[in-house]
Structure formats: C-alpha cells, structure tokens
Amino acid sequence: MMLRAVAFVSSILAGILAFAAAAFAQSSGSGEGLPVSQCQAIAQGFPGATYANFTPSSPLPVWKAQAKNTLTMAEKEQVKITFVGHSTYFIETPGGIGIATDYSGVYTPYRLPDVVTMNRAHSTHYTLTPDPGIKTVLRGWGEVPGEKAQHNVAVGDVYIRNVASDIRNWGGGLEENGNSIFIFEVAGLCIGHLGHLHFELNEQQYTQIGRLDVLMVPVDGGLTMGADSMSRVVQRLRSSLILPMHRFGPPLEAFLSMFDTKFDIVYAKDDVISVSMRSLPKKPTIMVPKGL
C-alpha cells in the first residue's frame, strides 16, 4: 500500500514538472535543454492566469533582433538584473520584457519598463501617475482597504504573481495586505522581491511563495524589519542569490553580519547582473549590487 502511495505521488510530481517544462518550451519557442525551476513547477498549478502584452515597449532595432536570433542556448536563458535605486531593480527577460520593481518614477531604468510593480508603505515605492506608456501596472495593495491584491499574469516570457503581507501604518497600527511580495518566473528562474516587508512571513505565505532562486531583500534594519528578523526570512527562503536593496540607517554590515559561513558575500563588479539557472551559485550568495 505504501509503495502504491509513493508511486502515485511520484507520478503526480513528474506530471507537474513535465507540464511546467512544456509550458516554458511553448513560450520560448524551443525549450530543448532548458532547466525548470522548482518554483515554476509549483506556480503552474495556480489556475486562472491571464495574458497581457507580449511585446516590449521599446522594440529592438533590426540588427539587434537579428543578433538575438543567433544567441546561444545559454544566452537565451540569461536574465539581466540592474539595481536602479532604493527598492527598484530593473529585470530584463530573454524575450526583451523590462520590469521595474517598487516603481515610483523617481528611480528610473535606462528605458521605459513594460511592467512595473508597486507597494505603498512609503511614497518612494509607488506612484499614482505612472507613465501612460507603461503597459502593465501591478499594484501591491487592493482597491478596497484590507483586501488582497491578486495578480496572476503572463507578460511575454515572464509569469508574474504576488503574495500579500501586512504592513504597519503611519500611526503604528496594522494595515492588512498593504504589501505584496512579487514573484517573477522566467527562463526557469523564480525571482522574488519582498517589497516593504514589515513582518516575518507565516507558514501559509512561505508555501504560497515556494522556492525562490533569486531574492531581493530590504536591508534598512528598521523601516521594514530589523536585520535579525530579515535574516531569518532570507535563511528560510534558501535562495541561491540574494540581492540587497533599500539601504538606510545601520551600515550594510549590520545585515551581512547576520549570516554565517553557509553564505558567501560578494560585491558585483558590473552594473548589470546576469543570471540563469545554470549560473546560480552552488552556495547561497549575497551579492551587493553596484550603487547600493
């Protein structure tokens, strides 16, 4: 009986992985040789995904488009991540989609994003008047106070979803579901942005998030959470690559000192961080981006 149960569970997991691989192959043209992230396989089980814009807002010049068709498989898997400022990272997918996180319009990438995500704990994390040329605007809070924002959308080659969390309001009280952890699934990677996280995550939230390959984490040590609390979240998520952001107050070293020898600490040499499933570090690594 036990063997049958194990075989049944194994067949279900195999089916999920196969479905995720097929879905990714369909979106990328040819999925031959592409790895599938653990988180992506889980997320494929979420029903009701909608599909948004499939072309980047800044079309590639003809010569660049032709060059893109000659990219190697490894290059087609690469996602480019640039720290723009504060809590804004600019994520560029292999398909040319540009995403700006916690976008306020103050810290802007080199080109207009196709997608922006926002959180409203502070005005430096959102704008009420985004550029009308931005095709997809994802707000991390619900239209009705206390209600969860629910995003489940595919834009080009990236699948975006969110997990809501509570925040403190300016009066010190609790604002339910005022923040969203946004998760971007692309090229087999699962990239998570914690937003303006004020409280440690609960078991349900960890389950909804799943495995994150790349984690963007605020390190201010006070406006969000203390370094010790934030470090517990980071260690629980077990991401391969951790990218700090939202640096205020205590020196960055206060956050870095929370981690033992199980984590490597490195400093990015270039503005753009290129990452793929194949290039993820084997040992969890905190990479401090240029400009932080």
From TrEMBL:
One Pfam match: Lactamase_B_3
Cross-referenced SUPFAM superfamilies: Metallo-hydrolase/oxidoreductase
Keywords for the protein's UniProt record, in alphabetical order: Hydrolase, Signal
Lineage top rank: taxon: Bacteria
One function term, GO molecular function aspect: hydrolase activity
Signal peptide: 1-25
UniProt keyword Hydrolase, yes or no: yes
Annotated protein name in UniProt: Zn-dependent hydrolase
